[in-house]
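cron nightly-structures :: item 1 of 1
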Amino acid sequence: MYLQASDNVNMRGNKFSKFIKQVKQKALDTLPNSACKNPKDVEKYQKYTTILSHPAKNRLIMGATAIITQPTIDFLNHDVNKETREVSRNRTIAKIIVGTAVGFLVRGSCYEIVNYFTNIKSKNKIHHALLSEKFLKSLVQNENQLKIYRNCLSTFLAMLAMTFTNYYIDAPLTQLFANRLNKNVKTEASERGVV
């Protein structure tokens, strides 16, 4: 036991945290050092970061990753019988497809709304409705800051909107879609003579 000056009792002592820091540093040291010297490489990476930071496109990427991994995990769970695995897989597929579609539409719509109300090139006051006078000069001067501002604000608005869409759109559509998929499972099971 190691007693620190701040009267914290630490069972592992300082040696463990020092060891963790050393392991992290060793892991970072194994990565190659590189810098983008070619302007085309910089543009390529900026293009990827723009895609990844766009709320609607980000939701599609998460949905694609989920549809590849989660149904497989559900179906390979051998702690339950085959019919339960199939029903679980179908429910997961329904949740992912409906959640991705609705999330894409909501986030994309919120992004377009924020884009419309943060148009710094327009002279119309309505196009500056979501721009604070305090930040307007810095956003006009730095296009990258404006992109970050739009992404953050649209994601926040989408989160607010999705508190409603999750209950009124996602849940009923997921149930409907899962029931349709499960009906096919029961039909196939009865044809095989399992039910």
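cron nightly-structures :: done
DSSP finds six helices and two strands in the chain.
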